[in-house]
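Morning!

This is the sequence you dropped in the shared folder:
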Amino acid sequence: MAEKIYRPNVAAIILSPRYPEKVEILIAKRVDLNNVWQLPQGGIDKGETPKEALFRELKEEIGTDEVEIIAQMPKWISYDFPEKVAQKMKPYAGQRQKYFLVRLKPSAKINLHTKIPEFDDYKFVGLRDFYKYINSFKRPVYKTVLQYFKKEGYL
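The structure's back. Tokens below.
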């Protein structure tokens, strides 16, 4: 059997400007899937560092890169795509992600009407409500990442 290939990717847990007084995480609703909410994320281009990819992807997906990096997960996390997604994403079996915890600057203006819109709505939710919205196959990864940042005292 061939070895699985994972797409290098960055993902952002974006906290509202009210952090640390209030912990609210930005989730966004995908334009191409019915009622699927997720964290902003995207591929790392050849020659790009994860940090460069983070800022580029935020600009492309939510229309702003005005964030401060609070922390990043030291290890990369991989997950497999569900079969339906894997068909569209060949040759990739899944993604290998670097997670960043960032805080939106008070001056940041979110604009989902980007060149190629990926999301058509967003909201900030507390940790308690976060999992009510999240797509099932990403849930274990998000849980691992949020537990890490919680254990480290950030959330």
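Headline: The chain has one domain: 6-151.

More detail when I'm at my desk.
O.
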